[in-house]
Specification:
The protein is mainly alpha-helical. Helices cover 89% and strands 0% of the residues. The protein is built from two helices and no strands. Helix 1 runs antiparallel to helix 2. It is elongated, with a radius of gyration of 18 Å.
């Protein structure tokens, strides 16, 4: 079966979006870990409060 242009583009963009979603999630996890270890529990709470504002 011959693959169409739209099917090819969808697969290409899907994997790129999946990689970006994984990278963004990992950066959030790393931010939480660094805030908790380097500063204090209050810093982790502050990051947790600002994250929904940052994402909207």
């Amino acid at each position: 079966m011959k693959e169409t242009f739209c099917g090819f583009q969808f697969k290409k963009m899907f994997f790129i979006a999946l990689i970006m979603l994984t990278a963004f999630s990992l950066s959030g996890i790393v931010d939480f870990i660094l805030a908790a270890r380097l500063f204090d529990d209050n810093a982790m709470a502050a990051v947790n409060l600002v994250t929904p504002i940052f994402l909207s």
